[in-house]
Structures are given as structure tokens and as C-alpha cells.
Design goal:
Elements lengths: L1 H20 L19 E11 L8 E5 L14 E9 L8 E11 L7 E9 L8 E8 L6 E9 L6 E11 L6 E11 L1
Antiparallel strand pairs: 1-3, 1-9, 2-3, 3-4, 4-5, 5-6, 6-7, 7-8, 8-9
């Protein structure tokens, strides 16, 4: 029994030494052709984002608050998850192009500003299944806001660019909003 234990220990130690001796690279430079990277494309997308926070068909819902959220002038600490409709026109029954999925949170104690973390998931024919990822500050009272495009998938693989947002309409009673987006994105 002792011989089996010594033999097993020896085998484990020897195997570990063999693995340790084999060099592994953290990174490797690849030629552009390895990922089929060619000439970059510039795409302009224009659509409307429907943020519905009220009623039985709400697509954006508060999921967390901070102890000061309800007394803060800016709702600081409120976190909202969303799965908002994206359409060609400002009407909710306009042609659907995708969904905005992610979250926004009130992240400013002094000004109405949200931290936006969103994936635009497109289902329009040409871009079906492709996504764009947005991350940035949204000072919602500004007439025009700009956010960085930090990535994408599918048609938008290796995407980078920026999005401009303008509030098209806001219902002061329900707080439902329609926001017009123009996105300019470089991709392969």
C-alpha cells in the first residue's frame, strides 16, 4: 500500500514537472486574414427607442434602489432593467428593428443623469442577430446626448463608434419616453 502511495505521488510530481516545463503563450499576434478582417465599413443606423415604464406592458422596470433613492432629487441609486422596443419610426406600431436590452441607473447626486449599459439586439433582416454594445453617461435633460459604442457581434464584430440620443417625446404623467437614436459605427 505504501508503495502504491509513493508511486502515485511520484507520478503526480513528474506530471506536474512536465506540464510546468511546457511553455504557454499569453498572447499571439495573428495576421488580419486569420479573422477575415478587411476594409472597415461605416454604418449609420437611425431608430426610435421606446422606454415604457408604466402600465401592464412596461418594458423597463426598477429592480433596485439605494436608501436615499426616494428622497434624492435625482433618484440616485435607482437601477432599471429594460427590454425596450426599437422601431423605424416614433410610433410603437412602426416597423420593429430590434430591442434595447440592459440597464440604466441614476448615477449622479446633483443632475439627472443615468449610467447606461445596453445591448441593441437587431432583428431586421440585414442585421438579424447582430448586436451593438453601448456604455456611457446619459444626462437625460440635455437636448442631445452622446454615448460610445464599445463593441458588437455578428455584422458589427469589432464595432466602435458613437451614438447620439435625442428625446423625441416624454409623457410627464407616466414617464414613458421615446428617444431618437443615430448611431455611427465602424465595423468589418
Amino acid at each position: 500500500m505504501a508503495n502504491n502511495l509513493i508511486s502515485a505521488t511520484f507520478t503526480v510530481v513528474l506530471f506536474s514537472l512536465l506540464l510546468a516545463g511546457k511553455s504557454q503563450n499569453f498572447s499571439t499576434s495573428l495576421p488580419r486574414t486569420a479573422l477575415r478582417l478587411g476594409r472597415e465599413n461605416l454604418t449609420h443606423l437611425h431608430f426610435f427607442f421606446h422606454d415604457v415604464v408604466s402600465g401592464p406592458n412596461a418594458t423597463a422596470m426598477r429592480v433596485a434602489t439605494a436608501p436615499i433613492t426616494n428622497t434624492s432629487a435625482t433618484g440616485f441609486g435607482a437601477v432599471v432593467m429594460m427590454d425596450n422596443l426599437l422601431t423605424v419610426g416614433p410610433e410603437p406600431n412602426s416597423t420593429r428593428v430590434g430591442r434595447a436590452q440592459g440597464m440604466y441607473a441614476s448615477a449622479d447626486l446633483n443632475d439627472m443623469s443615468f449610467m447606461m449599459v445596453q445591448n441593441y439586439v437587431f432583428d431586421e433582416e440585414r442585421y438579424n442577430g447582430s448586436t451593438l454594445s453601448i456604455l456611457g453617461r446619459n444626462p437625460i435633460m440635455s437636448p442631445m446626448r452622446e454615448f460610445p459604442v464599445v463593441g458588437g457581434s455578428g455584422v458589427f464584430r469589432f464595432a466602435r463608434g458613437y451614438a447620439e440620443a435625442r428625446t423625441y417625446s416624454l409623457n410627464l404623467t407616466s414617464q414613458d419616453a421615446v428617444v431618437e437614436y443615430d448611431i455611427y459605427v465602424l465595423h468589418y
